[in-house]
Amino acid sequence: MTKIIGLTGGIGSGKTTIANLFKSEGIPVYIADDEAKKIMKSSEAIQKVVAVFGNEVIKDNYIDTKALSSIVFNNPEKLKMLNHIIHPLVKKHFDEWINEKEKFPYIIKEAAILFESGSYKFCNKIITVIASKETRIKRVMQRDNVTEQEVLDRIKNQWSDSEKIAKSDYIIENENLEETKIQFQRILKKLKNLH
Predict the structure, then answer these.
(1) Which of 8, 19, 157, 191 has its CA 20 to 30 A from that of 184?
(2) Is the distance from CB of 159 to CB of 115 less than 8 angstroms?
(3) Which residues contact 97 (CB under 8 A, 6 or more apart)?
(4) Residue ending a domain, choose from 83, 100, 117
(5) Is there a single domain that holds both residue 77 and residue 119?
(6) 56 with 138, same domain?
């Protein structure tokens, strides 16, 4: 049975860097956010979103993610409603994806909200990537061309590092790429001994 290794971390922690290191080792990686974006374009998702949020979130027959984000971003109830639509669709897609990966001893499921969504419960082991708040803010400001306040708003919608660490099997401190690679190799060795 293929094991599921959850990979998570707060915004700007560098999950993608770690996901790419796994890919470079030939290990399949499922990027939940990327798949969720594709699923949001499916007719099933569009119908369900319109049923809850109305036609004002539709633009050119697709979900207007900016309009939808502005509705759910500072409204935990509405965000919960959206997650109740998207998470089951992503889970279904992931289950189909993992069925094709039976020959691998384990796969990586990368998800920013692995804990918040509850999908950590389906993982055999969990890796959390952490970095200092300053590093994370700087990375996201550069990557997404946003203000410091916008990054802080996103951070406060996620679990804190200490909450994630408490539920994780492995931690990667991602401040310096060379040190990160050393930590990654250590974890890789441990994962090879998973039974």
Answers:
(1) 157
(2) yes
(3) 30, 35
(4) 100
(5) no
(6) no
| Total tally of structural domains belonging to the chain | 2
Stated pTM of the model: 0.89
Return the CATH number at 123. 3.40.50.300
Distance CA 91, CA 107 (A): 15
Give the count of beta carbons closer than 10 Å to the beta carbon of residue 81: 15
Domain boundary among 79, 100, 121: 100
The pLDDT tens digits for 129-150 are: 999 999 999 999 999 999 999 8
Provide the pLDDT for residue 195: 66
